[in-house]
Amino acid sequence: MRIENQDQEDPALPQGALQTLIANKQRLLAFLQHRVGSAELAAELLQDAFVKGVEKGHTLREDESALAWCYRLLRNAVIDRHRRMSVERDALARLAQELDTLPDADRDLEREVCTCMSELVVTLKPEYADILRRVDLGETRIDRVAAELGITANNATVRLHRARQALRQRLEQMCGVCAHHGCLNCTCKDGCSG
After folding, report:
1. Pick the CATH number of 105-180 from 3.40.50.720, 3.30.930.10, 3.50.50.60, 1.10.10.10
2. Extents of the domains making up the chain
3. What is the pLDDT of residues 29-57, one digit of tens each?
4. With a threshold of 0.70, does the pTM exceed it?
5. Which DSSP state fits 152?
């Protein structure tokens, strides 16, 4: 038997039931955290369940305790969460598998990119050439390069930005039109030596 609300537009959870749920908040959080492994996610799921409880309070049966009803909501929320995560993991696994079967586009791109860049890097200020070699060519993280150079990460980021600008200007001076198109299919004779 369902609790009949006098006002059908007010599907709210009965006040006593809401107080029971609030009084048991820590128990409910512990229940969730044990099942999802994260205090933040448990708090998020509990908040969602409280909102759902307030919205769907009219579904609480007269012979059912508010706590049992809430545990049922929480179990369903955990199951839904695990299903979503499983679907996401499967999709990511399929994507990774698809990416593994694609040709290595990075190596192809490296062969296509104008060889002028590596030749022009040496014409830049030494600190610009160094950071470009380490970050862009050596693929070292900017924070690691900053630590190795004894400068802040912000300073290294600014230096890298200025080095890239200087390299771009040098490429445009040497290559002209092809540099504006990303140096793909470079028409410069022998890597801009002509």
Report:
1. 1.10.10.10
2. 15-101, 105-180
3. 999 999 998 899 999 999 988 888 777 76
4. no
5. -
